Amino acid sequence: MEADTKAKRHVVCRADEIQPGASKRVQVAGRDIAIFNVNGEYSAIGDRCPHEGASLCAGAIVGLAEADEPGEARMTRHGEFVRCPWHGWEFDLKTGKSWCDPRRTRVKKFDLAVEDATKIVEGPYKIDVFDIRQEGSYLVIDI
Amino acid sequence: MTSPVPSATNLRAGSLPIAGLGAIDCDVHPRSPRRQDLLPYVDDYWREIFMSREIDHLELSGYPETLRPNRAAPDAGNGDAASLAKALLDPLKLDAAILNVTSGVHAIFDPYLAQVLCQATNRWLAAEWLDRDPRLRASLIVPLQHPEAAVAEIEAYAKDHRFVQVLAVVMNDKPLGQRYLWPIYEAASRHGFALNIHAGNTYRHAPTQSGFNSYLVEDFVHQTQGFANQVGSLLAEGVLAKFPEMKVVLSESGVTWMPSLMWRMSKDWRGVRIEVPWVKEMPSLLMRKQVRLTLQPFDGPSDPAQAARAIAHLGGDEMLLFSSDYPHDHRIDVAYWPANLPEELAARAARENALATYPRLEV
Ligand code: FES
């Protein structure tokens, strides 16, 4: 909780720089963060795969393969996971948790908000908004 | 080659007697039946076939039990129920012993002959062994060559709880996870049978992935790869997931190779599990829940402290079952807990684990 109260907000990019289905790696406070646009919803997780360090923003945004019975596979939760480009581990974009080992294997999840330029200009964090323009929406991250 | 029990010349006698543990011996070998044993249990057509085709003693060429070095001594004590009691069950004060017949029946190509041999062998086991000693149990022999007949045999013995598991040899036609065998697992699981995978090879394929080996020592060791293949197959094809109540008992498999299989499958499952989404849990967890291994012969270090470390990698003692593999000679005195196995395991492996493995086993 303490970390939360200390979190600073950072404007990371324009929202329209990441089209639906695409991702972008940004550096905030020295950390690599992967931002994904899943059908207009943004999520931000640590970019480094906890397995061997691949860049997750290069991974495919995928659904979850599930099966109630052997041979009866189906896709669910479309677009809610990223699959690591190196060895295929799947991470839940909403929680940063590995699907296979949610307790022990996870990437950090960051709070991400889309805010209007006006709000950012008027907000208390002007130091972070040096690159904003007056129009359009921006992605802001707490770190 | 077989040492009588108790033996004065055993090389690695432990000090903890098995007697007193209320032990259940999960792998004991009666002599395999000969023609005169089976003839009473077949009809006149098959009697004619047995006689005219000279079908008598069917042995697996991988373990020809009438040849050296496998040949049991004349006093081996596995010739009939009374001598087995005297040689093994009485001195060890066993509460139960499970009889496993691994004979040439597993290698027969003719599905109907295989069926008849299985039926006759089971009837012989029931009449000549189980009826004669209430402590005896057995693996049901079923023709995997003929899954329909195998299911019928399971149904026929569903009410006879002295048959506690269904036996398959580890190296046979195809990986055991494949779907054509599932009716067998469905019936077995519904009636509470475990699946016993026993060392043995029908030589349908070379015993190694690199071809045929030249020597017996290699043949023994490569059985381990067969066991690993079968566990992998049962997991990936979904047998463990589909039949979660059915335990898979590996007999004469060794133990120390199992943790590395568990680790490796768990690791690679993370990356390729979309192929097998019915495997919903970490493979190591599924294996720990469902796979069991008998302890004789043990493939680990001879120092029990080191053996304990190797065993600890399994992540749970519940996977281990006591067995003597009697009368196969491992140069130890089976009346004592093996000196190379940690004694702390004894109570659990000798009894509790078997009771948890075999729902049909009532002692
Ligand atoms: S680096 Fe991501 S799965 Fe191996």
Automatic annotation (TrEMBL), chain A:
Gene3D superfamilies: Rieske [2Fe-2S] iron-sulphur domain. Residues 10-121 form the Rieske domain. Signal peptide: none annotated. The keyword Electron transport does not apply. Keywords: 2Fe-2S, Iron, Iron-sulfur, Metal-binding. The keyword Iron-sulfur applies. It comes from the Bacteria. PANTHER family: 3-PHENYLPROPIONATE_CINNAMIC ACID DIOXYGENASE FERREDOXIN SUBUNIT, FERREDOXIN-RELATED. This is Rieske (2Fe-2S) protein.
UniProtKB/TrEMBL annotation, chain B:
Residues 24-359 form the Amidohydrolase-related domain. Coiled coil: none annotated. It holds the Pfam family Amidohydro_2. SUPFAM superfamilies: Metallo-dependent hydrolases. It comes from the Bacteria. Keywords: Lyase. The keyword Nuclease does not apply. This is Amidohydrolase. It comes from Aquamicrobium zhengzhouense.
